[in-house]
Amino acid sequence: xxxxxLPDPLDLPAGVGQRSVSYRFDLIDGRTRIxxxxxxxxxxxxxxxxxxxxxxxxxxxxxxxxxxADAKRLNPLTDRVAISMVVGGRQPKTYPLxxxxxxxxxxxxxxxxxxxxLTLFDEMFLVDQELETGFEAGGQLVDHAxxxxxxGLPIGELLVDSTExxxxxxxxxxxxxxxxxxxxxxxxxxxxxxxxxxGRLRLKRAVEPAAQPPTIDLDASGRVIRGSVARVSExxxxxxxxxxxxxxxxxxxxxxxxxxxxxxxxxxxxxxRGFVLPRxxxxxxxxxxxxxxxxxxxGIQQTVYESVELSTPADPRxxxxxxxxxxxxxxxxxxWTLPLVPGGEMRHVLRRAYPDTDGGEA
Length: 362
Prior knowledge:
With 362 residues, the protein is α+β, with helices and mostly antiparallel strands. The protein has 3 domains: 21-122, Thrombin, subunit H; 129-203, Baseplate protein-like domains (Phage tail protein beta-alpha-beta fold); 209-352, no CATH class. The chain is built from 7 helices and 22 strands. The protein has helices at 68-73, 124-127, 142-150, 177-187, 218-221, 270-273, 288-301; strands spanning 21-29, 35-39, 48-52, 59-66, 79-87, 93-105, 108-110, 113-122, 135-136, 159-160, 170-171, 194-195, 201-203, 216-217, 230-232, 241-246, 257-261, 278-283, 307-313, 323-326, 329-339, 345-352. Helix 3 runs antiparallel to helix 4.
């Protein structure tokens, strides 16, 4: 006999529009990772978690206010707050939403004591501090250089895809480690880094979204809320060619230039517009392959494509750089906002993906 697999409580059957949802805030000792109990934000507040890949610190939690007792328990210098979504009634299922540190704290004095309105940041806040000494990649593979850059930081185990690309870049004291990390991610052909739902720093190789199977299918689930869709297009000014010129003094005598053209199926492509709108950047890159990978990564990650904003019920399966099917097309998710209150609508930002019909790279 085979046991029946219980359906995922996030997938509501047709005709069912409600489910039991709550959010849990756990107090964690940042040094030992030991759980110190739950926190209960005041009921008249509306915490919200935002994921935005355009910033160095990708995830921020705002609107959290702790009552007097919880404010006394919190050490803002060392403690972390782990947030989870709990779905279901009799057999609840818990979905992690990341681990956060206090980025801003205010004490509001009342007759009963002081409450604490908080702004929480993911642990990129810890990473993005100034370098005390210079850092040189030294020609290492980029994933190895990243591991060395972050060595010793109390952020747990990294989750970094391997890469064949190397870096010869260097950063002087006073530059931030976050800036070096983002530079290295582009040089290694990665999407920009973020701390995922499990609280691990994730660097994922950049892929053409239109060539990937969707990780989330909004067409099949029918979860998009009617009337929530807003389309935005900046295709008139969007570049259709990305050129990366190496300024590495140790490179060969021949100039090292990488180039990437957006797919010909895109409405702003060179083939369809009839002329080139280039974006040119300089970077310290050792080889032609590294320059080409850098240009391709820029082209895939750029947000000046056709985009759409829409709302769904809260869904913790959306994490970072998910490929989403909606309205019969594939989209790359570049941001979302999740109200951490029952019944809140999750707002998504999706960027249109176009199939690569001519190779994409020059």
